[in-house]
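#random but structural
TW: two for the price of one
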Amino acid sequence: MSDPSIPSKVGAQWKPAHAYAMAVVCLAVGLALGYLFRGSESPYAPALPSIGTATAAATASTGMGGMPTLEQMKQMADKKAEPFLEKLKADPDNPALLNQVGTLYKATHQFKAAAAYYERALQADPKNVAVRADLASCLYYEGDIDGAISQLQQALKYDPKDANSLFNLGMIKWHGKKDAGGAVAAWQQLLKSNPKLADDKKVEVQKLIAQAKRHSGLNNSAEP
């Protein structure tokens, strides 16, 4: 199941509209990175808008129907980020605050800005695999496929069983690298290392494994 909207060349220079359009397509078909598992938001952090909430708010603020523009979403993200940015002036290396700002920008498709804050958060807390997985998602949407894979591999060095990193690694290998075998291997490792995974999520991963095998001609007898 190849996706022509995902770049095949590492470091491809996308226009912002291309990344935005690709993210919307991924959301529409249920393939957004990290959406099967919990992202990096702290359970103690103030509620941050989801992409759906963000787009709805931006649409309402303009009084126009349809999807808001990237500029409209950026303006909303900038406004929402103001209280966090104010706190960062006094505590610029606070990983929780940096992560919150990154998540705000990620939710509104400002992936380059989000990645910058996630990178700063990781400088202060390099072993935070959830933040590293979110950074990988942003790099992927920006067209840096190898960079995204590198971040996920680093996350798995810290936590080889991290379900979110393994899930995203499979998605990027399949859709970004056209490597169905690598995707299947990542997802099989996910299921093997997370035997207590919720049934609904296990079913979703198994479906992806079956699809990747079917489209690549891999032997389905190897199904875990």
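TW: number two ↓
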Amino acid sequence: MDAWLEQALQSWDDARRIWSEGGWAMIAIGVISFAMFAMGLHLWFQLRKKAFRSLPEATWRHWIDHPEERRGRIGELLDFVTGGVSLKQTTFFFRQLRSTETPPLERDLRVMKICVSAAPLVGLLGTVTGMLTTFGALASGSGGDQTMGMIAAGISEALITTETGLVIALPGLFFHYKLSRDYQRYKVFLAHLESVCAQTLHHRTRPLAEAA
């Protein structure tokens, strides 16, 4: 246990040292990474709350004709969209549903995509400033220990910011891809649900229309 704690403290000290050597760009990368993963986790929880993947299709198809058995988020959704007595009303209810459900998800995906793109760019900007520090030390220094320290600091800043930007962007890219796929699945689910509800309503109203 003591060895594990000592190793953890050593790793923390190394991380703080590397972070400080990265310069000002590390602060910006840290803010971007926090915003990106916070937005991603929020979106992931929002999609999980929809519960459209955990509920079998046979169950919600059964709920369309048996409203008293509806439960959870899908049950609430069916209560909203099945209140129409015509295909036009059903289409209107689904349009309202999409106007309230999908814009927040699309907004979070756009913000997350911007963060994924910004992280390596800020890292590249830190690389440029680090190289400028290095060239400034080479141009103005006399070759002593102080000059070599300035050169090493500039190179460290250039390399650390580039690496950190890529380390943040790569998992963010895959996370964004997964969330985008889940969002597209949710849109497909809504389209499929609308089709099933419209067919069910058509079967209900057709005998009445034929009798009239």
